[in-house]
Amino acid sequence: MSHAILIGAPIDSGQRRPGCLMGPAAYRVAGIAPALRDLGHTVEDLGDLTHGPLPQASHPNPAVHSLPETLAWTETLSRVTESAMARGLPVILGGDHSLALGTVAGVARHARGVGRPLFLLWLDAHSDFHTPETTTSGNLHGTPVAYIAGRPGFAPFPPFPLPVPPAQICLFGIRSVDPAEHAALLDHDIAIKDMRVLDELGIVAPLRAFLDRVRLAGGLLHVSLDVDFLDPSIAPAVGTTVPGGTTFREAHLVMELLHESGLVSSLDLVELNPFLDERGRTALLMVDLVASLMGRKVFDRPTQNY
After folding, report:
1. Is there a contact between 141 and 149 (Cβ–Cβ < 8 Å)?
2. Of 39, 47, 89, 118, whose CB has the highest number of CB atoms within 10 Å?
3. Which one of the listed residues 128, 181, 250, 268 is annotated catalytic?
4. If 0-12 CB within 10 Å is exposed, 13-18 middle and 19+ buried, where does residue 306 land?
């Protein structure tokens, strides 16, 4: 059994649609802690973090917004996540996806300290491979994978502690990539398992191939789960909906395969905007998926009454 450490990250500065800062509360109301305890795990809730003082920072790209807030959150989340890695399995309750700039940096520092390679499974509709220099929206939630992979162009962010080699990154379920991101991805050996690949090959074979690489390398595996990985018909509470996402069954299959691998060492839950939800259905589904990742089997799932 695991010791799950819940870390609230009420962030919505990485994009422009308010509401993600309510995400951590929604996960708690949806019962994430009791769901994990019912599976035999211990749960420690650190509450919601607050960032430190805002640094003086600007960027030559005039589109970039909320840079001081994002820098402050990155520093705070990096420090807290690294500390949590030494004690258990951090589950970061977001918050928009800019939080991964900090969470994965903290995990990378821990991985470097214990001498193990870090692998990244990015469950998302988007590749998030922009840099502050290339983004046209200015939304920094679209930059974490590029930062993690060590792409240049991230000043004034601190250098990523130990960039994750592109071959150790898997973008799984993506279906929305900007032209600038596409061009950059062609220069990197990142495993891209977009929805076309998953439609042709299914969920299991591509995911197991990546997990086998993690296992053979003795790696740590950080999973970053974006609500828009799911089809908006089952998960409406996200400001970046893209049709054609994973179904209820496909998403649970991914989670059960991750549990069976025994490899997941840290987890982000991002982009939940409860203001856009319908009676909490997206938050409840996300908690249900976390339970699957942590060991709940499909035949254990109770019938729900609404």
Report:
1. no
2. 118
3. 128
4. exposed
Residue 222: its pLDDT value, please? 98
Distance (Å, whole) CA 120 – CA 101: 13
Give catalytic status of residue 226 as yes or no. Answer: yes
Give the model confidence (pLDDT) of 128-140 as tens digits.
999 999 999 999 9
pLDDT digits (tens, 9 = 90+) for 168-203: 999 999 999 989 899 899 889 898 999 999 999 999
> What gap in Å lies between CA 265 and CA 219, rounded to an integer?
9
| CATH number 3.10.20.30 is the correct assignment for the domain at 3-299 | no
Catalytic residue among 12, 96, 181, 226: 226
What is the number of residues in the chain?
A: 306
The catalytic position among 82, 124, 231, 288 is: 124
Nearest 5°: the CA angle 12, 237, 2 is: 80
Three-state SS for 176?
Answer: strand
Give the whole-angstrom CA distance, residue 218 versus residue 115. Answer: 10
Is 141 an annotated catalytic residue? Answer: yes
Instruction: Determine which one of 51, 59, 97, 252 is catalytic.
Output: 97
38 is catalytic: no
- Give the global pTM: 0.96
Beta sheet of 169-172, edge-to-edge order: 42-48, 3-9, 89-94, 264-270, 220-226, 118-123, 169-172, 191-193
Residue 153 scores a pLDDT above 70: yes
3-state secondary structure of 165: coil
CA 197 – CA 203 distance, rounded (Å): 9
Residue with tokens 């080699």: 165
Catalytic-role residue among 51, 59, 141, 222: 141
| Residue 110 annotated in active site | no
Counting DSSP H helices and E strands in the chain, the numbers are 10, 8
Other C-beta atoms within 10 Å of 144: how many?
30
Q: Which of 181, 231, 268, 271 is catalytic?
A: 271
